Structure prediction request, 821 residues.
Amino acid sequence: MTALVRRALLSDYFVLGLCVLYAAVVVPFTPSFLSVGNGTNILSTLFPLLIVALGQMAVLITGGIDLSATAVIGLTSIVGAMAINDETGWLAGSPLATPSGVVIMLAIGAAVGMFNGLAVARSGMPPFMVTFASMTGFSGLAVWLTHSKAINALPSAFVVLGGRTGVAFGIALAVAGFAHLMLSRSLLGRWLYAVGHNPRAALISGVPVSGVVVSAYVVSGFLAALAAVLYTGQAETGSPVLGQRIFLDIIGATVIGGTSLSGGKGKVLWTVFGVLFLKLVDNSMNLLNLSIFTITMAKGAVILLAACLDSARARLGTP
Amino acid sequence: MIPALQFDGIEKRFGNVPVLRSVSFQLGAGRTLGLVGENGAGKSTLMNILGGNLAPDAGQIFLHGAPHAPAHPTDAARAGVAFIHQELNLFTNLSIAENLFLTAFPRMGGVLIRRREMLDRAAALLELVGLAADPGAPVERLTPGERQLVEIARALGSDARLIIFDEPTTSLSAREMNALFSLMAKLRARGLAMIYISHILEHVHQLCDDLVVLRDGVVAGQGGVNDFTASRLVSLMVGREVDQLYPRRTSPPTDEPILEVHGVCEPGIVRDISFTLHRGEVLGISGLMGAGRSELARILFGLDPHAEGEVRLNGGSLLGASPRCHIKRGLAFLTEDRRHEGLCLNASIADNLALVSLPHYARPPLGLLDLRRWREAIRGIREAVRLSPQARDTQPVKTLSGGNQQKVVLAKWLLARPAVLILDEPTRGVDVGAKQELYRIILDLADQGTGILVISSEIEELIGICDRIIVMNRGTLCAEFLRPEFDREKLLAAALLKDPSA
Prediction:
């Protein structure tokens, strides 16, 4: 029996099991939970969250944390919309508006990530403080740019790109597949884990530690911007406060999946399941007509549960 | 007379593996007992049972005649058992006095600490252990040796009647070690019972009255210390005759320079260091702790800066490059701190083995690894260093014994096929059997033409494996000895010279 519990806890699919269990418990109370419409609804918000969470995971694996992801989402959303909207945009009406808008957004995301990464790697400031400061600064900038107004009238091609669940699925699948390949089989992937385990030993073993750290933050900023493309398209609006509601979800989903806050541990599959679990909780409580405050409290409890499981696993993993 | 400590038929299994099998011995009151054995022989398990970290499956312990069955480390501490560990358990941000009374602050009304009383009592304890330091000073300002004295003071302050020293000398300088040994003699004269655990058999002979040898969980031998010659002790520990701890070289060193060091200076650290290492040569660096040996190695490897001087590897300059460039050029560096600088302890054995040579297996454009070649290389190197065959590649490296961990560090460097290997204390905390295997690997490398620079605090080790030894003293090179001139006394004298420039 204990051996079975142990195997289940240490399994990669443990959180997927939790998802199934949770769904089974919730269905009797919310018959619409399993409907096709609700399924699409869950998926449409799941894919962009998965993309940001994968970026967050890259940073967590190196032993850091990126609090600025939501600020990147808001900033890129508003700058992208400013550039390409059909009324006041610099690129308004141009056939290249949508692709250029996406490129601009991704570049800004990567640049913010580069800033965070260089500040962490070169100055030795704690990642929490660096990204906390850039979260505050860049979300302020996003609001200041339009005096907190949202921007509508986005080109239809852009709306299709983000708004169609099928497109979002394709992008998320590609990102997750590529991330899995890079983390498990590439030099950079192995270096990310090594830096997270022991940066000192990694440096002495010839790992370019600063470069690896910077690249993790660049990936996180880039993927946050990619998620912003999807969120902005879904909302058909560029908004400076677009990402604020998912601040908790990004780190929560990653940690529920099993990625450790102390570095060196994390898998793409874990994060997929973590995002799924968080979304199921979120959605089912919405269906039960619970208030946003109740839902937030429940998510807090779920994240605490994840932390308990993490320490239980750590104990089991070391005889 | 009632013995201070008696183990009676202690048994312990982990899963199906017996680690202690009917272990029985006793420690007479006021005596010092040396406990020796290879890593994995069961010493730590036995001490963990004594200290309340583990419960025995069978058997009993008697402390001064009374049954001792601690359920928790605090029970053991209350019964007067104190441990002085190799990894020190002090809070470096707190003061000496606070560390001494952490669990038993003298208090007013149960809440407020009586500061004055605490400092006075701390001062008295420090005097007892011979540490001249302000009890209010933070522990982080103390050297490793001084910290150990604080630990001993803490044990005495809590009225310990039995102190266990577990590898206490690993991080001490020669002077600190002598201070520790004379304190132990003083404590013995006061009637305190002690257990001394060490791989350094010389020290065991010097300090102990009685000896117990553990091998594979059983008592392989016990008796008065004079009943054991060094070679008998080693064969009892290893279970076979170790006729030659230091293997022989098959081919002599060459005259071909491979690493040339010219006038390396860094103010306050090293002064005007010049020497040449040849292909196939094992060059030892001897000296006291703090003489600048490890610091020199770090400078050579590009980890620390240097103000002046030149380092050439294979004729090419290594000036100011990062460790990464040094590795590409063919340099390897096994640091003295295996746990913090050598290994990613929580990562798997395979990941640790591959860390240095990983770029060799990456293919453009994405840097994907050629997993087949990678696995083959790992299998090959595991056999070459004779890593414990029971250990799985995916197992965290921290689950290995010290000797096997050190083999992993050495192996990860060997996979990069270095031209020059710098070894800083390569056998620290490693048992006799594994030591011999490590020497074999090192000398085989030298036979194949690798240049090897060894830093060691064990003079016997340097004499055993080196072709040439240079001595460092306060940041300068002060003497050089060729193999025929090796002499323990002369080496020590050079290291201890008061004024090396004279």
Notes: Chain A has a mean pLDDT of 90.
